[in-house]
Amino acid sequence: MIAPSVAMLVRLLCGARAVWLGSAPPNGVCIFFANHTSNLDPVVLWSALPSFIRIRTRPVAAQDYWTKSSLRLFLATRVFRALLIERRNVTVRNNPLAKMLEALDAADSLIIFPEGGRFAGPEPQEFKSGLYHLARQRPNVPLVPVYLENLNRVLPKGEFLPVPLLGSVTLGSPISLNPGESKLDFLSRARLASWNLHRL
Amino acid sequence: MNQFFDVQTQWFVGGVLALLGASSLIGWVLSHRSGNPGYKATVANLNGRIRAWWLMVVIFLAATALGKMGTVILFGLISFLALREFITMTPTKPGDHRALFWVFFVITPIQYAVIAFNWYGFFSIFIPVYAFLFIPMRSVVAGDCDRFLERTAKIQWGLMICVYCVSHAPALLYLDIPGYRGQNAKLLMYFVAVVQMSDVLQYVWGKLLGRRKIAPNVSPNKTLGGLLGGVFTATFIGAALYRLTPFTPLQSAGMSLVLTLLGFAGGLVMSAIKRDRGVKDYGNLIEGHGGVMDRIDSLCYSAPVFFHLTRFYFAE
C-alpha cells in the first residue's frame, strides 16, 4: 500500500520514466547496475520499474546512510526493502557479496551501483569488482545496464532540498560475463554499457 | 461562477466540444482505413493529439468554472511544469542549486499570488527587476564562476518565458474593462482559443498544402502555406468570436492577427532553443504533443502583448 504510493510520488516529482532501450523488461531475477550521482538514485530507479518487477527488486544501499534516522530506516526496510550493506568494517560475517548472493538465490532482483560511491560528473567512474564477482558466481542472472540522468541536479551531493527537475532512467540490453573474459575487460565493458545509454 | 453559464460561453463551449467530437470521429474513420506503416504512424499520432486535446480542454474548462482562483492555480501549475522542462534541458551547475530552489518554490508562487491579489504594479516588475537581480546574487554565494553569465542568463530567461510571460494569461481575469465587468473569463477563453486554433490550423494547412519551408534550419515542419493558411483562418475565427470579447468584429480580427503572428514567432524561438540543445521535444508529459513547453510556446509570446493591448485600449 505504502510502497506503490511512494513509487508514484517519486515518479511524479522526478518525472522519471523507465525507457527500455533494446529489450523488454526482464521476467526473472536480474541485476540492475547504474551510475551513481545522487542519494535519490536507488529510490528513483526502484520507482521507475514496472510494479511486477519492483516488488521483487531490492536496492543495495549503504547501511550507515539508511540507518541514520528512523524515517530512513523505515523507508529502507519497509518501503524499498533495501539490502543494507556495511561499507566500512567489512568482515567475513557481514560480507556484502554473500548477502547479495543470498538475495538472488531467494529470487529477488538487485539494484547495485558498481562505482562504490557517488560522483558528480556525467560519466561513470571505473567500476569496483563487486559486479564481476556477482557475474562470475551467478552466470545465469542477466545484468541490466542502467543510466540515470539529471538526478545529481535534482539533489546534488551535500544538498537537502530537492529541485523538481526531470530525471531520466534508461535501461539497456542485458550483458553477461563472456567465457575467459578478464575482470578488467568485463568491468570496463559493463561501465560502457551504462554510459552508452546517456542521451544529453 | 455565473459568468461561466451565460449564453455566449455556452455557445463557445458547445462549439469547442462539437469540434473535438468531429475530430475524434475523423480520427476514428482514418484509423480504420488501410495504409502503409507511415500512414498508420501519422494517424496514431493524430489520434494521440486529439485525445490530449480532450484532456486539456476538460482541465481548462474545469479550472475556469472554478473561478479566478482555479484559473490562477492552473496557470501557476503550467508555469511550474514548463519551467521544470526548460531548466532540465538547460545545463546548470551545482552552484545554481539554491537559486533554482528559489526560482521554483518562492519566485513562481509569489508571481501567481500577486495576480490573485490584483497587485498590478508589483506583478509587472517582480520578475524582470527583483528576481533578475536576486538569481545571480544567490548563485554567486556558491562561488563558482565557470560560465557564470551563461548559467544566470539561462535561468533568468526560463523564468521570464515560462513564468512571467505565461502569468499574463490569468492576469486577463483581473482587468477592469467598462461594460465587460464580471465577464473576463470569456476574454481568457477567446485568447487561448485563438492562439491554440492558430497552432492547430498552421499544422493542418501545412500538412495539406505546405511546400515551401519557411525556416528549414529551425523548424522543418513550418511552411509558408501552413503559416498563411493558419494565420488567415485563425484570424477569421477570432473575428467571428468577437461576441466573447469587448472588441468589435474588426478589432477582434486585428487582435487575432497579432496573436497568430506572435504565436508563430514564439513557436519558432522555442524550436531554435530545442535545436540548440539537440532535443526534439521539451518533455513527454502530453501524448503526441511532447511536453507542456511544446504546447504553450505560442502562448508565451502572445500573452503579454495581448494583455497590454487590451489593458491600454480597453481597460480603465
CATH C-level class of chain A: Alpha Beta
Helix content of chain B: over 70%
Shape of chain A: globular
Shape of chain B: globular
Q: Based on DSSP secondary structure assignment, what is the total number of beta strands of chain A?
A: 7
Q: Gyration radius of chain A, to the nearest Å?
A: 16 Å
What's the Cα radius of gyration of chain B? Answer: 20 Å
The fold-level CATH name of chain A is: Glycerol-3-phosphate (1)-acyltransferase
Described by its quaternary structure, the protein is heterodimer
In short:
In chain A, about 35% of the residues lie in helices and about 15% in strands. Chain A is of the alpha/beta class.
Describe the structure.
The complex is a heterodimer of chains A (200) and B (316). Chain A has 200 residues and is α/β, with parallel strands linked by helices. Chain A has a single domain (2-195), classed as Glycerol-3-phosphate (1)-acyltransferase (3-Layer(aba) Sandwich). Helices cover 37% and strands 16% of the residues of chain A. Chain A has nine helices and seven strands. Chain A is globular, with a radius of gyration of 16 Å. Chain B is mainly alpha-helical. Chain B folds into two domains: 1-65; 68-314, no CATH class. Chain B has helices at residues 7-31, 37-65, 68-89, 97-116, 120-140, 148-171, 184-209, 224-240, 249-277, 292-314. The relative contact order of chain B is 0.11. The interface between A and B is medium-sized, with 15 and 18 residues.
